[in-house]
Automatic annotation (TrEMBL):
Transmembrane stretches, start-end: 20-42, 54-79, 91-113, 125-150, 170-187, 208-228, 234-256
Keyword Transmembrane helix (UniProt): yes
PANTHER family named among the record's database cross-references: CHROMOSOME 1, WHOLE GENOME SHOTGUN SEQUENCE (PTHR40465), DUF6534 DOMAIN-CONTAINING PROTEIN (PTHR40465:SF1)
Name this protein carries in UniProt: DUF6534 domain-containing protein
UniProtKB keywords: Membrane, Transmembrane, Transmembrane helix
Cited Pfam families: DUF6534
Chain ranges of the DUF6534 domain: 172-258
InterPro entries from the UniProt entry: DUF6534
Length: 349
């Protein structure tokens, strides 16, 4: 009988490249969700502001690169260099480049949320500036980590770059918590006291909190594994999911506008209860819940929520008022107040 040739033993790859491969699988799955949300966005909001559509396109391109780079890295380690242990010790450029891609994704999303906070606060600059400072603090530490990693040839020398990990994660958690807290506060402050509109506001608050929770959980898990298992790649397998989560949170926020608009429309079935009324205050829900962007012909639409007053009572039903600036030009001054909104105070939810 011929004996089978003995193969050299290799160390277990479960907590190193196995973890990196699982992270790549997860990132690819989330990329599918990103593509679906981007398709829904472009189909549902063809007249949205051009800069928002460009922003979504940029994030989609970054997501394509992110997935492609991680797949390339996984293939290089587990296929191209199969049975070549000496190559498994080296840091590949594609894995590091995917981190740079993630850096820009997070910075763009944080910038978008800073803009939202600025508009929702009525032009108050310091909350948005705080977000920008925290976001650039995160980006600065992360950029230093990427530069050092690019210069490192072997995984055994990653320790100097990992020291930038905890500050980066701390800035990330602080930024996300501040964004969620600020958005929730302004939404809470803008409640109208009407049951139907308050229900929508609560859902918007839940979305803001959930977006923060997902990324914060990822950052905390990465910090834990960097601390207790710095010799593995479990932290990398988890961290590469963060870029997908940031992109999907932004797209979910944009796509939620139409869902809430339809929900409010369903609650206004009686045409006799719909009329144009001026909001009592520009700080109320009418200010906070503006949907959409430019419409056909360069005309803007404003969405205002207000109670429907009837003789002797105030109806609990909420009205969804849609009117254009061109229509407002031919109406009286009170009608203009209800429809024409200061462009600097518009909010894209």
């Amino acid at each position: 009988m011929t004996s089978q040739p003995q193969t050299p033993s290799l160390p277990s790859l479960d907590d190193t490249f196995g973890a990196y491969l699982l992270g790549t699988y997860g990132s690819t799955a989330l990329f599918g969700v990103t593509c679906l949300q981007a398709f829904m966005y472009y189909r549902s909001y063809p007249y949205d502001r051009p800069w928002i559509k460009v922003l979504v396109a940029i994030l989609l391109i970054l997501e394509v690169l992110h997935v492609a780079l991680n797949i390339t890295g996984s293939y290089w380690f587990l296929v191209t260099n199969y049975f070549k242990p000496e190559h498994l010790l080296k840091v590949t450029w594609s894995a590091t480049a995917s981190l740079v891609d993630l850096l820009f994704t997070a910075l763009i999303v944080h910038g978008f949320y800073a803009y939202r906070i600025y508009t929702m606060s009525g032009g108050v600059w310091w909350p948005a500036l705080t977000v920008i400072i925290l976001a650039f603090g995160r980006a600065g530490n992360f950029f230093a980590l990427c530069i050092i990693t690019f210069k490192i040839e072997y995984f055994s020398k990653l320790a100097p770059s990992l020291k930038y990990g905890p500050p980066t994660l701390a800035f990330s958690v602080a930024t996300d918590i501040f964004i969620a807290t600020t958005l929730t506060w302004h939404l809470h402050k803008g409640r109208s006291g009407i049951k139907e509109t308050n229900s929508v506001v609560k859902k918007l608050m839940i979305i803001a909190i959930n977006n923060c929770v997902l990324t914060c959980v990822v950052d905390i898990m990465v910090l834990i594994f960097i601390t207790i298992r710095p010799d593995s790649l479990i932290y990398l397998g988890i961290f590469i999911l963060e870029g997908n989560l940031y992109t999907n949170s932004l797209l979910a926020t944009l796509n939620a506008r139409k869902l809430f608009s339809k929900e409010l429309s369903r609650r206004n079935q009686d045409p006799s209860t719909l009329k144009m009324t001026a909001p009592k205050s520009s700080e109320g829900i009418g200010h906070l819940a503006q949907f959409g962007g430019p419409r056909a012909g360069g005309v803007h639409s404003a969405v205002v929520f207000a109670p429907v007053r009837q003789e002797g009572s105030v109806s609990t039903m909420t009205e969804l008022q849609l009117a254009t600036q061109s229509e407002a030009a031919s109406s009286d001054n009170q009608y203009k107040k209800a429809v024409v909104m200061d462009e600097s105070r518009r909010v894209d939810l």
